[in-house]
Amino acid sequence: MRRPRVSLLVDATAGGAFRAAEITAATEKIFRLVDFSGTTGCVAWGLPNGLDWLAIFLATQKAGWAALPLDPGFDAQHGRELATQLGATHWWDGLALSSLVPRTRRWRGVAVVKVTSGSTGQAMAVPCQARHLLADYQHIRAGMGLRPSDKNLGLIPFGHSYGLGNLVLPLLVDGIPIITAAAYTLAQIDEWAKRYGPTVFPSVPTVFKLLAETPGEHRLGKLRLAISAGAALSPDVAQAFLRRFGREIHNFYGASETGGICYDRTGQASLAGHSVGLPLPGVRIKLCASRVQVQSAAVTTTNGRHLLPDCGRLNEKGELVLTGRLGRQANLAGRKVAPAEIESHLRNLPGVTDVWCGVGVRAGRDFLAVAVETSAAVRELKRTLATRLPTWKQPRTWLALPQFPRTARGKINTGALSSQLGIR
pTM for the full model? Predict the structure, then answer.
């Protein structure tokens, strides 16, 4: 790690600050404690952001083993079950390493196993080599203009693809410090921005929405770059954030299998809500029957190309406009409609910050059910949508919420919304 005299990791909750030597010492302590000899393995854990997370990650890399970080907060039983399902050979509980049921999967050459739900909703393992992670960071650094003088406010989980590319690799490669915390409140974000002076804040739309709406004297200190990923960013949120703080939010689009894909360099596309920006340097995108195909050195497939379930089009500026996701369709009296079409229309309405449309079945027939994150009345949304779509495409069931339930990754908790809407 570079910059030996700089505090590279700051635990804002506990107040601890760790330089490269202290991070190395914590890593060596685990390395001496754990027997990494024998067959190459894969270590899983569910620790929160902090020194312990970074130390076990670096210890696995030194040993040549694969790291499989899970979302923080898993209890031992569920964490071990998921780790076993994904092919991990060992579980780290923060104090000791224990063996899991042996798997036939070979982990040689794998640095990190990302976990994604993809389009299925089921957890899947995405094995990545070190070269994939390094290439992803190089694309991100060039596209976002990250500098060694920057400081990251790192509140997204380190182990997510987003956290690895925007927090962990910048620290390890360029010595870009991270101010982090296992948990936080909005008031603490402002406090830490003033105390530690972070310049880059990669986060999720929900956090930016709450920051823009919550009363108070939030100023965000020296922050120069606000990055949003993990879910769709509403133009209403981007506009409210600009009015409140005088800073644009920059949309960032990527996937576990590909790393970063597109980025809104100016923030103008995020304000308009019409695209997720241009491809990052080193990344090529191609539309195959409207599906997004990504080619880069960060893609984990053998040919360096991956076809996503996301659908889109390129606008006149060469920016990617996402139009929906493959796989979800309703059959309404013999006519097909994609829920993504309903989501697209509603997402562009004033006051709407997010939308999810699902397909239910009642008496053997499909119907559309929609949840809208908004402060507007459902009757107003129905009235406006009726002017844009034919009657047969209108959702039968509606749910309006001021804030959607979300996962630790910032994505919509579709299971919770399906339950509230009464659909399977």
Answer: 0.85
